[in-house]
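Quick start: what a row looks like.
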Amino acid sequence: MIASERFERAAVLGVAVAEEARRLLRRHLDAAGEEGDDGTVLVDVPYPDAAVVTALLDVAAECFGERGDSVEEIRQAALEALLELAGFDDESQLNSGEVRGR
């Protein structure tokens, strides 16, 4: 496999991971959409989906080289990067509303 094929496959996988994280967050987003003064939206993701989201964020943090003072900060940075990556496609069915990690 040549380098361009590997890069393309990695890009497709990255977008798929981002879309899956976004799908899981959208699934558990409360219709009331409680938003803090700073724009933070709290999404309670129950088990077993929480385990999947945690794994996706840990993988994304490693791939993106995210750093922070705590595991939560590292995962938050990874979430923001994933949501930016997943937000590029205006035709995505997940774009019916806005989901923000922060």
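That is the whole record. Residues 98-102 have pLDDT under 50 and may be disordered. The two ends are 39 Å apart (CA to CA).
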